[in-house]
Amino acid sequence: MRSAVGWSGAIVLGVAITTSPASAAGSGSEPKQVMAIADEMVALSLEYDPTPAYYEVLPLKRHDYLPRNSAADNARFDAREDALWSRLQKLDRAKIDKDPAARLAYAQLREMLETNRALRVCHAEQWNVNHMFGWHTAFTDLADRQPVATADERMQALTRWRTLPAYVDNEIANLRAGIKAGYTAPKPVVVRVIKQLDGMVDLEARKSPYFAPGEKSKDAAFAKEFESVVSQQVQPALRRYRDFLVSEYQGAARETIALSALPDGAQCYQAMLRSYTTLDRTPKAVYDLGQRTVATNLATVQALGKTMFDSTDLATIVKRVDEAKDNRFASADEQLQFSRGLLESAREKSSAYFATMPVQPAVVEPLKPEQRNTGVSSHYEPDPDDRKPGVYRINLDHPEADRRGAAEITLVHETWPGHHLQLALARGVGKRHPLSALAFNSAYVEGWARYSEALSEEAGIYTTPYAQISRRLWPARGMVVDPGIHMFGWTREQAAQFMAESGRFSPETSAEMVDRIAAMPGQLTAYDSGGLEIVALRREAEAALGDRFDLKQFHQRVLGDGVVPLAFLRERVQAWIAEEQAAVAAR
């Protein structure tokens, strides 16, 4: 499956990867061959899509091309991945495991290649209309991160953005091919994307988010030339795409939000589950585990409700939390300031639970203008430069429906000790191979953030009494509602009601969540798939080590290799448990 922004037909001129002599098949030791394949995987990925290099530390030297998204480029990419997979399959795993760096790279390569190959059944490039992280909004962030400090970089910026019309032509061609083959995006998602584009296509060039390179450059001549690129090429391309969606695509878009409506939809959903969770669970297994976990969480909520409200009735507990005056916001600004006010306290109290803390700061900022009131969720935007902050983008569209307890949970999830802490620490992990910066999976990243919600209660970060109830009402429901929609016939109304019952979502935000699930099948299962695994590993370590259990060292083992598949994480933690037990036995 392609990245969130797809690919482009632009020609890459220089990717800073020097492959080792072991790149030739069969040459060198097994560990060297693994690292050579890792070199080539990074080079291939950046050749086809430079965007990850603006979020993580990756060896990208040129900034003059967009992702490659033509059908021919997609086919060539698949063939080159297959060649790497064939070479990886021939290596002796026992020899690889003797080298820690090669062992990690092998696990990451295997997960990436297996996942990418399995996802081809989805033909995602043929229904790539996405209001959550579609190319049209993702590219505004790329424009904002475009380097323009030197004359050469400014020339590269002009070159890159002059290719946007060709990128749009490829997107339209891919979507037309999808219509013909029976692959289309859900109509409600298309409507949201059109709304986003409506807010962009008629802007004056200098007010467009795509003008960011001209805005931050001190070169007046460049700014004027870039303004021309935006007005004469970028804006017309965006309008052409918007008009295509309105006049041609919207009418052909599928009425159902279920992935099962697409050709090979069941196989695609299984592949997406594997992609997001790194586990080989079936949709039914995920669904059943989610239901059991929800039931366990609700039992705890009832106990808390008895203490706080003298009631074990779930509807009463949810209503009392929702209606509490000290759990509400008077305005979007109050919600923003509340979250900002909690940020430093969250960092300070988190520090007691980690051996090291990243130096990079985090900030809280509203969604970008083009994202507002279009159903885009709050999210975290990393920055590879530790001198610049990671950004928690907070959705302030419904302050009257949002609650303080829920806002606290989201804040710690996105910043300290959640996404920001984990991703900032990962960049400082030894001399890691660049592959580690590409080896993203949601189960590990979102799982850590879900675990962090519970850790924050342990650390005393929450300031309201409602967070401890709210953080248990929603988790694991994603494991139920996501496969429920895509595989088990849940209606839109049934899904919205199930989410609203948690008390975490108003009717408006529940509708937005349904469209998020429609746009990103499988992704909502990742949070608790990963979170439950990290909790299970902690309980296993606590039971095995007793008084010798060190929470800081446990967190170091969980975070110490950066983003890894869950199976590799389990092996890593269990090896640490064995090492600690052996140390005791040796005394």
Structure, explained:
This is DUF885 domain-containing protein. Keywords: Signal. Residues 380-389 have a biased composition (Basic and acidic residues). It comes from Lysobacter soli. The protein contains 25 helices and 3 strands. The protein has a 3-stranded mixed beta sheet, with helices on one face. The radius of gyration is 24 Å and the shape is globular. The chain has 2 domains: 21-273, no CATH class; 280-527, no CATH class. The termini are far apart. The protein has helices at residues 30-48, 71-89, 93-96, 100-118, 135-144, 151-162, 164-181, 187-198, 212-216, 220-252, 265-277, 283-309, 314-323, 332-350, 404-414, 419-426, 435-438, 442-458, 467-473, 477-487, 492-500, 507-519, 526-545, 551-559, 566-585; strands spanning 362-366, 379-381, 390-394.
What's the structural blueprint in terms of helices and strands?
Elements: H1 30-48, H2 71-89, H3 93-96, H4 100-118, H5 135-144, H6 151-162, H7 164-181, H8 187-198, H9 212-216, H10 220-252, H11 265-277, H12 283-309, H13 314-323, H14 332-350, E1 362-366, E2 379-381, E3 390-394, H15 404-414, H16 419-426, H17 435-438, H18 442-458, H19 467-473, H20 477-487, H21 492-500, H22 507-519, H23 526-545, H24 551-559, H25 566-585
Parallel strand pairs: 1-3
Antiparallel strand pairs: 2-3
